[in-house]
Write a structure and sequence with these properties.
The chain has 133 residues and is mostly helical. It is built from 3 helices and no strands.
């Protein structure tokens, strides 16, 4: 029942004129899969209820009590702590970063140029002076 209402709203949204009308929620893959999933679950529940549980399914779902009366902790209301006497408007205004002094030492130094190292010319040698006896 709720899915049919959502489907009607999605089709109505897709047919409205104006900016953003390229979105068509009723044709989205999630919405199409959800419809078949709900239908299959309903059929399975009705089938199993018919040969296992033998209970009559009510036409309207009963209203459930949404407020749990066990297992929950009462929330503690949050209160901001009192301001310290040191935090005056003058103190807060002193933190204005636009009034800070210009400091040129904070600029990063340019990187020094790395000189290339000359690699030694390594050639394979047969006569190394090593002997295996």
């Amino acid at each position: 029942k709720v899915f049919a209402k959502a489907e009607a709203l999605c089709k109505e949204y897709g047919e409205t004129k104006g900016p953003g009308t390229t979105a068509k929620p009723s044709g989205h893959l999630f919405f199409r899969k959800l419809g078949s999933l709900i239908k299959n679950t309903l059929e399975k529940c009705q089938r199993e209820n018919g040969f296992i549980y033998f209970q009559k399914v009510p036409a309207e779902a009963p209203q459930l009590e949404l407020k749990a009366n066990y297992g929950l902790v009462e929330p503690v209301p949050f209160e901001f702590p009192a301001l310290n006497a040191h935090w005056t408007p003058e103190t807060v205004a002193a933190f204005d970063l636009t009034k800070r002094p210009k400091d040129d030492t904070a600029k990063p130094k340019p990187d020094e140029e790395v000189k290339p190292l000359k690699e030694p010319d390594i050639k394979p040698q047969k006569d190394t002076g090593c002997q295996i006896s």
